[in-house]
Amino acid sequence: MKQVSWHRLWIWLSAVLVALSITSCKSHKDSDYTTKRRHWHTHRDEQPTPGSVDGDNWATLDVKLTRHDNKRLYEELRTWLGAPYKYGGKTRKGTDCSGMVMQVYQAVYDKALERNSARQFERNCKEISRKKLREGDLVFFNNGRSHGITHVGIYLRDGKFVHASSSRGVIVSDLSERYWDNHFQCAGRVE
User: Fold this and answer.
1) Which domains are assigned to the chain?
2) Which end of the chain has fewer CB within 10 Å, C or N?
3) Mean pLDDT across the stretch 165-191?
4) Which one of the listed residues 97, 147, 183, 186 is annotated catalytic?
5) Does residue 171 contact residue 81 with C-beta atoms inside 8 Å?
6) What confidence score (pLDDT) does residue 27 get?
7) CA–CA dist 31, 29 (Å, integer)
């Protein structure tokens, strides 16, 4: 009798864990630069000043800025790094992927975007090829569990993008990582 109840408990627990893991902003394991960002983020007194170059990693966004880069975008994104994930949130105290993108676009470009990642693509963007991505463009993904767009991030350069991961909060990831490469849906340039 005990074996049956443990078995049922295990099935129930597994179902609950699967249900909790299904979100529109699901992420994957940390990359090396995300781990470095976390370490840096805990030492606020060591942060570089906005606009400065920190080796090959400007303010933990894993890019070296040039004079041609939109420093306002990088400064704004830097303030979001480490913000916790909160479904339906749109502040640094808690945000989901589309909420963060919406707020960054309002602050940097003074553009109001839709609140949902799929609608951001449909109503605010012109589709572009992955090869034509440039800083500030949006990258869209499908989590593989539903149809259409389920996740969005802001492209930086060199394959890097910032997004709100449901398990890690706002982080930098790379399009070449297997998870993101496999789940890439499309790219869009906000009009």
Assistant:
1) 23-190 (3.90.1720.10)
2) N
3) 96
4) 97
5) yes
6) 39
7) 7
Q: Which position among 7, 39, 43, 163 bears the catalytic label?
A: 163
Q: Name the percent of the chain lying above pLDDT 70.
A: 69
- Global pTM reads 0.71
Please answer whether residues 98 and 152 qualify as being in contact, where contact means their C-beta atoms are separated by less than 8 angstroms.
yes
The structure tokens listed for 160 are: 């890097």
DSSP calls for 60-129 = GSS----TTS-HHHHHHHHHHTTPPB-TT-EETTEE-HHHHHHHHHHHHH-----SSHHHHHHHHEEEE-
- Residue range 14-34: average pLDDT? 42
Is 39 catalytic? The answer is no
151 is catalytic: yes
Q: Any idea how long the chain is? A: 191
Q: What angle, 0 to 180 degrees and rounded to 10, lies between the N-to-C axes of helices 97-109 and 117-124?
A: 40
Catalytic residue chosen out of the listed positions 39, 43, 125, 151: 151
Question: From the centroid of its chain, how far is CA 5?
Answer: 40
Whether the CB-CB separation of 74 and 58 falls below 8 Å is answered with: yes
